Every structure is written in structure tokens, then in C-alpha cells.
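SAMPLE LOG
Freezer: B-3
Tube label: C17
Construct: single chain, 177 aa
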Amino acid sequence: MRYLPWVCVAAVVASFSVAACSSSDSTPAPSSDGGSDSATETDSGTGDDSSTTSDTGTGSDTGTGSDSGTTVNGCAQADFDANDHTAAADARKVSFPTADTAGPYSPKCMKIKAGQAVSWAGAFDAHPLDAINGDTGSPIKNTDTGTTVSFTFAAAGTFGYGCTVHSSMRGAVLVVP
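STRUCTURE (predicted):
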């Protein structure tokens, strides 16, 4: 009879599992925390173990969506309400720095109605704009040249945006029906 020594250390943090194992067994050892995460650990017996983990994020709140309890890129319902631009005559313009230094979007958070457009004005070569976080299907497209761009929001949702160079520059548009 052959005995296989196993040394395993596992820690469960939030909704995912991290594991490190070693043995002389070359059989793959599947690992799952019962959620939507999946992991496969393979021990080659040579000390060069490999591990693959994927997290779909479906087991927890990702901070996206258009319900009133959600925060996207630092924008909560109170922020959207304070910057309500749903009236037909309202200007819907977000301005940001024209210099290379990171600076805030103004306003950072904005509420509009479906079918309305928002314009951004600033230096896109220094602060490239793109959809970051929020609901899928954002009309915001990567813009890295010029000084103004406008996007029309056809559907309701919460659409995050930001500068792809400066992680401190983030904002969101809440689109209501």
C-alpha cells in the first residue's frame, strides 16, 4: 500500500476560495465553494503546481444597475437627484480638465431621461473617455482625440464612465424611462 502525503492550506474569503496544495499525486483536484466560482488545481509532483480560478461575479452585488440602492463610480441616488437634468431645456454637459493633470468631472453624476444626450468637454488626448462600470450596453465609446463628444442614451440604466489614464476620474449617468 502506497501512502500519498497531502499538505493543504485553504482560506475562504468573502465568496471565493483560495487554496494551495502539494502532493506526489498527479490527479487534478477540482475545488468549488458552491457558488459560481470554479477552480482546478493540478499537482504535477514536481513542485510546479498550477491553478486556474474564474469568478463570474454573479454571487454578489457588482455595484452596477439602476436601482436606487446602487452606487456606480462613487455616484449614489442622492448624487443623481442633486444633478437632475431630465427637463427638456436642461443642458447636459460634463466638463473635465484640459491639462494633463487629473481633475474631477463636473458634474460627476447626472440623471437624464432615455433618449437624451450628454456631451463631454475637455482634453481627450490627456484624459481618454470610456465606459467604465455600470450596466452593459453603454453608448459611451472610447474617445481619445478632440475636445468634445456627445452620446445619446436610448435605454434606461446606470452607465459609468471615466478616464482610462487616471483612475481617480470616474462618474456615471443615470438614465430613467
